[in-house]
Amino acid sequence: MSPPRVRLGNTDLEVSPLGLGCWQFSEGKGLIGGYWPALPDEVVEAIVRRSLEGGINWFDTAESYGEGASEQTLARTLSKLGKQPGEVVVATKWNPFMRPANSIRATIGERLSRLAPWPIDLHQVHQPISLSTVEAEMDAMADLVDEKKIRFVGVSNFNASRMRRAHVRLVARGLSLAANQVKYSLLDRRIESSGVMATAKELGVSIIAYSPLEQGILSGKFHDAPELLKSVKGPRGFRSAFRNRGMARAAPVVQLLKQVASAHGATPSQVALAWLLQFHGPTVLAIPGASREKHAEELTGAMALTLSPRELSDLDTVSRV
C-alpha cells in the first residue's frame, strides 16, 4: 500500500512524505561529493529499487553533488529499473556560489542533459551566497518555468527574510515558492526559533528537511557501539555532533526514540522521521539518504508509522533541552 501523497507547497505536485536524498550517489567526486565514499552501481540500484517499492516517488539531487555525477547516476538507475518520465518526481539544485543569476539559465542545459530523460520537476537555489539578488535568481527561475524547462521553483538554506523575498518575486511572476530545503531534525530545531518554520506555514511553502537523522546519530547505532565513531571518516568526522559533547547531548533523545520504537515494533530512525512528518502536519517533508538497501527499506517504513499525541509531545520536550 502506497503512503498518502502530500502537495508540495501550493503547487499541484503530489509527493510521498519522504523523498530520497541522493548526495551519496556522487561517486566520491569533487569537494562536496567526496563527503561520501563512492557506491557500486548495484548498491545504488538496490537502494533506488527498495525506495520505489516502499512508496517513495521523488528524488533530490544537485549540481554540486559530485559535479553532476549524482544526477547522472540517479537518471541512469531509474532508467535501468524501467521507470518512465512522469512516473517519479525529480528535484535538483543550482549551485550559486560566486555565480550570477544568469548562470541558472547557462547551466540548465547541463542539468537537463545529466538527468535525461527525466524532466526537472523542482529546481532549487542551493544556498543564499551568490553574486545576484534573490529577486534576480527568482526571475531567472521563473523564465525557465515559462520556457517549460522546469516545473516549480524552490530554495535551500534560505532564512525567513530571503524566503519571503523569493515568494514575493515569484508571486509577481504568477508563480509560488514551492519549498525551502533546510537542515532540520530532533537534534537541530533552529528553524523553529529563527522564523523559517512560521514563515513557511504562513506562505504555504513546504519545508524539506535534509539530514533528518543527523547522518545516523538518531539511529542510536553510535550510542550502542561508540567504537563506530572511529569509522566516521573525512569531513563528517569533524562535526561536533560526532564528538563526546554532541553525543552526550543526543543521548536523552536517542533513549526516548528507542522507547517509542519498542512500543511500535519500529526502529529509532523510523520514529525520528515519523516525528518530523507529523509534528507540524503536512508542512514538513524529509529526504533521508541511504547507503545500503536495508537503510532504504527501514526509511520507507517510517511513512506507515503513526505516533500518538503524547509521543509527539514527549519527543518535542526532550529535544528542546
Structural class: alpha/beta
- Characterize the overall form: globular
> How many strand elements?
10
Instruction: Provide the helix percentage.
Output: 40-55%
Strand order, main sheet: write it out.
3-4-5-6-7-8-9-10
Write down the Rg.
19 Å
Stretches with pLDDT under 50, minimum 5 residues: none
SSE succession: EEEHHEHEHEHEHEHHEHHHEHH
Overall average pLDDT: 93
* Amino- and carboxy-terminal Cα gap: 37 Å
Main β-sheet description = 8 strands, parallel
Total helices: the number is: 13
Strand portion, in percent?
Answer: 5-15%
Topology, please?
Blueprint: E1 6-7, E2 14-15, E3 20-21, H1 30-33, H2 41-53, E4 58-60, H3 69-80, E5 89-94, H4 102-115, E6 120-125, H5 134-146, E7 150-156, H6 160-172, E8 177-183, H7 190-193, H8 196-203, E9 206-210, H9 221-224, H10 244-264, H11 268-279, E10 284-286, H12 293-301, H13 309-319
Parallel strand pairs: 3-4, 4-5, 5-6, 6-7, 7-8, 8-9, 9-10
Antiparallel strand pairs: 1-2
Helix pairs in contact: 2-3, 2-12, 4-5, 5-6, 6-8, 10-11, 10-13
